[in-house]
Amino acid sequence: MQNSIQHINKAFESKVRLGIMSTLMVNEKADFNSLKEWLGLTDGNLSSHVKGLEEMGYIDVQKQFVGRKPYTSYHITDAGKIAFTEHINALEALIKSMT
Amino acid sequence: MQNSIQHINKAFESKVRLGIMSTLMVNEKADFNSLKEWLGLTDGNLSSHVKGLEEMGYIDVQKQFVGRKPYTSYHITDAGKIAFTEHINALEALIKSMT
Hints:
homodimer, alpha+beta, Arc Repressor Mutant, subunit A, three-stranded antiparallel β-sheet, 18% strand, elongated
């Protein structure tokens, strides 16, 4: 029990971050508005969490213009994949310990 | 995705609370010191989280004396079992959505 708890990563505790990371695990990239819509978030809530994840090096942000419109997309980094996989493994171990 | 995220309960997001609740799902009761030791926590950290969980009606606290020593034990309530099961189901659905 203690062991699986200790491998839970505080960076991914919030459900918004779980949502962002799991989306980027299965989609090569996702743009801001799609993430917002898929996860049912506000602009401010999504912004603050992607910023946090970017600062920790778990996701990368790409900003470009499509015509005159800004287009922001996100993808998971290798470090993000490793860290999130470890987090998910810890959650799975915790769930398993209860059954 | 959005659906499983929305069923994640903010009350159980922190790893300390995940640890407390999953311990009390599989043990009829647990005393303060055992929980502290099993989960590798400090007094203050454990105290604040059990207080939070108690206030939400998810766990019950029983205080008694064994001889002259105070003995505090915790058990999960029916509401706690239902809410935590829903939380775990949401995490499992999230994990499944990635594979």
